[in-house]
Design goal:
alpha/beta, about 10% strand, three-stranded parallel beta sheet, TIM Barrel, 10 helices, six-stranded parallel beta sheet, globular
Length: about 400
């Protein structure tokens, strides 16, 4: 698959930031979201000995750590809640260093798993968001090439969401569903969309600014998908998640909220020092690069951490202003330092956790509705066991 490459473009205009006394969050329930990113792992690691084997334990631990919102991928291209007993089988992906998703062969009725899980979520009155990665026939890490439906446009993706949400409402209702992210990190995961960008705009995704044809393509396609879903489900909120790329500030979007993923690898100073790009093709299959990458991350932190934080804060400020201007409360469900890390004897987590602690203060300053400390709030990670660490940060965000 094509890995999402962070870009660091500049918007043609600066968003205005004059919030006055009105605060959207005061009218929202809950007023603040502490988010954990579980995506497909909660379904595909629900087996004896795996991290989501015991749903009761994992959900209770989540609440103990102060998290009130789960980000879930219910696999709308695959699961039919009207026939939840369908058994799916998947092969070993041979990705032993996969932090999330799935990392081994398995089989099971994923729809039944989903129903079991959601009943326990509802019992605890936890909030959740729904998101789709759209693993499809051409995805190199798709375990279900023959069973998956393949949306070619965001409108087709919206149709698959509508099919699932109709049954979702019948089974679960919508209480606790905070928003639906119809496509994770546009433009990277919807099959063929990057190719369409090139064909229809005359340029690729990179570059200092979006040209007018790309702005038109993004706004027309995404807004059409939003309009269809907002029309059928006026009681729900819809968005499509994006990277913290300031070129998006030029795109007129009719989102109900704004889920932005801010990462350090958008800054060339972090990317060049750590050489993260060199490891891209062996992230999940090889650990020989771990020690060098870890040392480089530490050196980078020592040399330019204040500069990297200042640049990230500037982006956060710009998106915060845009969210206020357009009436789209700002969240992040994955963010801040590196989008890939792993529990390895050769990877030092100290610098990453330090960055997570900055993030809560910056999220508070820029009036974010939803925040997560890092990408690794799942029970398979060692940091999950540090209850005090999580609780200190979640309490700070929720109670400040």
């Amino acid at each position: 698959m094509d890995f999402p490459m962070q870009e660091s473009g500049i918007a043609r205009r600066a968003a205005r930031h004059d919030p006055g006394k009105f605060d959207m969050r005061a009218w929202l329930n809950p007023r603040r979201l502490t988010i954990v990113m579980w995506d497909q792992a909660f379904l595909m690691r629900h087996f004896p000995g795996q991290s989501f084997a015991d749903y009761d334990r994992v959900l209770d631990e989540t609440m103990e750590r102060g998290y009130n919102t789960l980000r879930l991928d219910p696999l709308p291209q695959l699961i039919d809640l009207a026939s939840p007993e369908t058994v799916f089988r998947w092969k070993d992906p041979h990705t032993p260093y996969m932090p999330w998703c799935w990392d081994r062969a398995g089989e099971g009725p994923l729809g039944t798993f989903l129903i079991e899980f959601m009943e326990k979520v509802r019992e605890r009155r936890l909030n959740y968001t729904l998101s789709a990665w759209w693993f499809t026939e051409a995805s190199s890490n798709n375990p279900f090439p023959s069973e998956s439906k393949t949306p070619r446009t965001h409108q087709e993706a919206a149709e698959l969401w509508a099919r699932m949400l109709r049954e979702w409402q019948r089974r679960f209702g919508f209480e606790g569903l905070v928003y639906v992210d119809i496509a994770n990190e546009v433009p990277y995961f919807l099959q063929g969309f990057l190719k369409r960008v090139e064909e229809e705009t005359g340029s690729g995704w990179g570059g200092p600014a979006f040209n007018s044809r790309l702005i038109t393509l993004l706004s027309s396609e995404l807004n059409a998908a939003m309009s269809a879903l907002q029309g059928e489900f006026p009681m729900l909120r819809f968005t499509a998640s994006i990277h913290g790329d300031e070129r998006w500030l030029d795109v007129p979007l009719n989102f109900d909220c704004l889920d932005v993923h801010f990462y350090a690898d958008a800054d060339p100073r972090w990317r060049d020092r750590t050489r993260f790009g060199d490891a891209m093709q062996s992230l999940f299959t090889d650990d020989a690069w771990h020690a060098d990458f870890s040392r480089r991350c530490g050196w980078t932190r020592d040399a330019v951490a204040p500069m990297l934080r200042a640049r990230q804060r500037a982006k956060l400020s710009a998106f915060s202003a845009w969210s206020l201007e357009q009436g789209m409360p700002l969240t992040t469900s994955e963010s801040w330092s590196t989008w890939y890390y792993y529990d390895s004897p050769d990877l030092d987590w100290g610098w990453l956790l330090e960055w997570a602690e900055w993030s809560v203060e910056d999220a508070l300053e820029y009036k974010m509705w939803g925040w997560t400390p890092h990408n690794y709030c799942q029970p398979q990670f060692k940091n999950w066991q540090d209850v005090r660490w999580h609780r200190r940060l979640t309490d700070r965000f929720l109670c400040a």
